[in-house]
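Dear colleague,

Thank you for sharing your sequence with our group. We've completed the structure prediction you requested, and as agreed, I am returning the results in plain text so they can be pasted directly into your records. Please verify that the sequence below matches your submission; if there's any discrepancy, let me know and we will rerun it promptly.
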Amino acid sequence: MNSLSDRIRIVLVGTTHPGNIGSAARAMKVMGFHRLFLVAPKAPFPSSRATALATSGDDVLKKAVVVDELIEAIEGCGLVLGTSALRRSLPLPALDPRTAAARSVSEAAGHDVALVFGREKSGLNNAETDLCHFLVNIPTSEEYHSLNLAQAVQVLTYELHLAMMSGAPLDPELPERRPESAERMEFYFERLETTLRTIGFLNPAQPKRLMQRLRRLYLRARPDENELNILNGILSATLSAARGRSDQQRD
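Please find the predicted structure tokens below.
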């Protein structure tokens, strides 16, 4: 990696209009960012419409990575920020753009960071925000608060650019060790849900809220490799003990 910008990804989820992808690429290029990931775009990509609106950012489009699922786009990322204007029943901690940018630049020194933008009309769904450590809310006028996708990308990349230019200091609250990647955490959450179902702690009829709360807890803690290995070991031992008791009961 040659610079902090090489470690920062802009991820667009379910984009409907190719022109918005091109405009977002232009916004990225102007601020010095080039790592664009597209998750299940609705229209075929590459697109001449996207290229036309990218202007000098067409090289960003050529290098764009297209994947089917968000978890693929954030693979290897130790920090995932999701943009959202919606209040949710179980909200994640929210950052303003400047704070989000300072945190992203600080952490990009150690691992990849992803800024995730949702669909033009509906944003990110609950399953997608479950993969994020924080949400980012762009403050707007109370009278009219609708930003199009490229405008949102411009605001965030501008703040990132300022943070890199100012040499944003490392936040003392940031972890001193490297948090585990998004895909390893997702594997752990799948094992955790299986374990809780096996021991009867998780109600299979209503598992969603408990798992959301547990996700928040673990993503807030952001365990490193050794810590996650310990947690996985606890799950393995719990499953082994539960299965052992079941075998004794059958005998």
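Summary note from our side: Residues 4-166 form a domain with the Alpha/beta knot fold (CATH 3.40.1280.10).

Kind regards,
the structure core
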